[in-house]
Hints:
Helix content: 25-40%
CATH topology of the largest domain: Rossmann fold
Number of domains: 2
Oligomer: single chain
Bound molecules: adenosine-5'-diphosphate, magnesium ion
Strand order of the largest sheet: 6-7-8-3-9-10
Largest sheet: 6 strands, mixed
CATH superfamily of the largest domain: P-loop containing nucleotide triphosphate hydrolases
CATH class of the largest domain: Alpha Beta
Number of helices: 9
Structural class: alpha/beta
Shape: globular
CATH architecture of the largest domain: 3-Layer(aba) Sandwich
Order of helices and strands: EEEHEEEHHHEHEHEEHEHEEEH
Amino acid sequence: MSLTIDRLTKRYQNKIAVDQVSLSLENGVYGLLGANGAGKSTLMRMICGILNPTAGEIKWNGIDVSEEDYRDVLGYLPQDFGYYPEFTAYDFMMYMASLKGVPKNRAKEKTKELLEIVSLSNVAKKKIKTFSGGMKQRLGIAQALLNNPKILILDEPTAGLDPKERIRFRNLISKLGTDRIVLLSTHIVLDVEYIANTILMMKDGKLIHQGALDEIIKVIENKVFECVVDNKMAISLSQQHPIINIRNEGTEVFLRLVANSVPYANASLSKATLEDLYLYYFSEGN
Ligand SMILES: Nc1ncnc2c1ncn2[C@@H]1O[C@H](COP(=O)(O)OP(=O)(O)O)[C@@H](O)[C@H]1O
Ligand SMILES: [Mg+2]
């Protein structure tokens, strides 16, 4: 089971939203990480067949997706998913199942099973308008699973989750990734750091990195430094190096930055994190 994307491109008028993205996905969790406007949703919508690519191709097990019943293997949670506030979770699932052409008896079974999986069984008969952000997102994932998809696409599924809900969400996603492809997008580094087997970093429509966390982190390994300096030196250093974090305390300035060699006498080497790499690429001017 593999999804292969070859030089996939989307152009809107004169804007290239996705620029020659090539990827090969197998079972597991993939975290698509990028700032707003990077092209994540556009890429996902093309993978789901909702948006036609300008160029490039998508193949499922070697067959072009436009040539087969590919939708049957897809589950999708859009970024701007519309929930019906007056529906109960149960009714909403049954409604989505009917839209997807799942027969009624099967839909009942599936709804019960999926609400269990996303821990919403106890509120199945409650109206969606009473749900927290996390509960709605879990319901969104449940509806995406109605057809037992081999490819699950979740666009910014962690938006609006509180810390507790985030942990619950991570556990659910890692489970789902054991026997299917899960591709989830986010602009929050922490959300992919622990759950994604593979991280895909996107910037300005291009895939700038892909690999396991420890692989992609190598880019800035032994290049992250911390130092405490005065204001003048802080300005000077920030003109020479990408700054990851800056914090003022009285007359002292705490800096975390990326440099090829020791940037300042008292600077100490720090362990690189995915957040460093992300900020390194997405901070202004980089
Ligand atoms: N329908 C559209 N028409 C024109 N430009 C679009 C359209 N949809 C998205 N864009 C542009 O394409 C770029 C990528 O958008 P999007 O895929 O939504 O990024 P992301 O999901 O990473 O925030 C942005 O610059 C956005 O403004
Ligand atoms: Mg988006």
